[in-house]
Amino acid sequence: MWGFDGRPVLVTGASGGIGGATVRQLVAAGADVVASARSKPNLEDLASKTGCRALAFDLTSEDSVRGALEGLDVWGVVNCGGFGGEIATPMDTDIAVFDQVISVNARGALLVTKYASRSMIRLGKGGSIVNMSSQAALVALAGHISYGSSKAALDNITRVSALELGKYNIRVNSVNPTVVMTPMSAFYWGRPEIGEPFLKQMPLGRWATEDEIAAPIVFLLGDGASMITGVSLPIDGGFTCC
Question: Which of 33, 34, 74, 215 has CA atoms 20 to 30 A from the CA of 116?
């Protein structure tokens, strides 16, 4: 069903929870996974546990991305690298933080798409790209001016890339998850006054797990989704439908 059969798939942000879960599920589905992050020790630990290949580079540096990806044969990409930034209103946002969030979440994914798609086109076997977006791209969330803006930009990168790369049989989609209650998320969403009203608006009424985000990524990446491109898929327990 998945159709990976040893196809090389690059996963950025692989040292994170969702990225790591995606690596594990892709390896289990038969992909030849190239796991990327900035931290070499974390990547080496993941490689020793899963059998993936490790490739460290910096998403904010075009030279670093180009150097890592030029000459690397890839069929698929999961742009999972990201930065949460700050919780701030438009009135008090730190523009330096805004710039950093955009640099990682939107610009970084575009850089990876730029150089990985060249490999896909050169190989002539089609391919698939899945971008890690967010429910914050689809609805307004208080305090998420930087993060939501970066993910809305990423959704547009997804749509335009799907349009431009379709003639090469390369599909491009994004997933838009709700909150996964990681230690990083807990500082904000773990507050009762924040988390409880949020969950009351969600039909399923619970936080997502890392594997619940990784599984749709693997589906969209694989041949079971061979006629799906340009989609932004909410994985949010129904939050954005209300």
Answer: 215
**Which pair of structure tokens corresponds to residue 49?**
């546990």
Q: What's domain 8-232's superfamily in CATH?
A: NAD(P)-binding Rossmann-like Domain (3.40.50.720)
How do the domains of the chain map onto residue ranges?
8-232
SS (H, E, C) the chain: CCCCCCCEEEECCCCCHHHHHHHHHHHHCCCEEEEEECCHHHHHHHHHHHCCEEEECCCCCHHHHHHHHCCCCCCEEEECCCCCCCCECCCCCCHHHHHHHHHHHHHHHHHHHHHHHHHHHHHCCCEEEEEECCHHHCCCCCCEHHHHHHHHHHHHHHHHHHHHHHHHCEEEEEEEECCECCHHHHHHHCCHHHHHHHHHCCCCCCCECHHHHHHHHHHHHCHHHCCCCCCEEEECCCHHHC
Structure tokens at 13: 């942000």
Among the residue ranges 66-70, 141-145, 184-188, 193-197, the one predicted with the least confidence is 184-188
Compute the average pLDDT of residues 71-80: 97
